[in-house]
Amino acid sequence: MWPPxxxxxxxxxxxxxxxxxxxxxxxxxxxxxxxxLVFRALGGREGxxxxxxxxxxxxxxxxxxxxxxxxxxxxxxxxxxxxxxVPVGVLKGISLAVLAYxxxxxxHSKDLDLLVADAHIDDALRVLESEGYRRVVPATGxxxxxxxxxxxxxxxxxxxxxxxxxxxLHWKPLMYRSMRGIAADKDAWYDAVIASTLRVSTLKPxxxxxxxxxxxxxxAWFRLKWLADIGALLAAASPADMARLYRSAKxxxxxxxxxxxxxxxxxxxxxxxxxxxxxxxxRDWRMATLERLALRAMTWRDDAEPEQTAxxxxxxxxxxxxxxxxxxxxxxxxxxxIVNPHDLLLRGGPDWVARCYPLLRMPxxxxxRLVRS
Length: 373
Fold this sequence. Notes:
Helix content is 57%, strand content 9%. It has 373 residues and is α+β, with helices and mostly antiparallel strands. It has a domain at 306-372.
């Protein structure tokens, strides 16, 4: 829970009074990537296993160091984009840490998420490559046809700097059709002050909330850090603000994602939500199932990564299908959920491979499940 409060202190004390498997606890903190918040919540309390305390402190320090490194790199890269005249927006990461927690060092971030309009993808790639970044996902050496397929069916590419910083270069904020074209919509963005020497363009609050809800929902909230972000943003919201955030998300086709996020935040983080709004959110026939799917994904095999296990992605796929707007989008979500994005590149390969792809799709999926198991 955020911010620190008497209620949070009481909840932590109550949790510590139970029997805790500290080794599992540390593994879960790693999996949910919320060591910064956990370290601050535990503080100097008694009753904490010394090895667990040391491990969580180390993880928290690593988050702070990575955040400083990312902030410096974001400042450098943003300046290069500005010099090249390429508009770029920042999603999540350091900017979200400041907006949600007021502290860029508290939130785990493994990369820089940047969003550009379709018309600027190649320009953005040139800027990053001129700074030494090299593409790692998908691999280099794609044919023009494969590049086209990737851009049509995926939402980002991953590049890595010589120093190990990763950038996810997005041309779509989400796989859903919602918010398409938002990168080119100047009214959707504003300049946020991240530090005294760093300002970045990020989504305006209502759109940022909708995006974060969809991002978390799209992954069935299998990491608690995503829900913690929502809880931190809602902590400062009045009942009227919360209702506005939900209706703004609904207006861009992400109402169910926002509803799920608010319901889960109330249930798991004790976020105070107006009873009338909660009843409205739970009225949708899909909400109870979406809650169960999220809880299943969060607790999938304790500390295992759901997406790295044989059938751990099923709650995520089911969530995407339920949240889809309409039958056609639901079908696309279902198909996308069982197809490895790299397998799609076969369609852009030699003619004989492209013709065989429909026959190869199911054997490839079965093989992928066997490998993950």
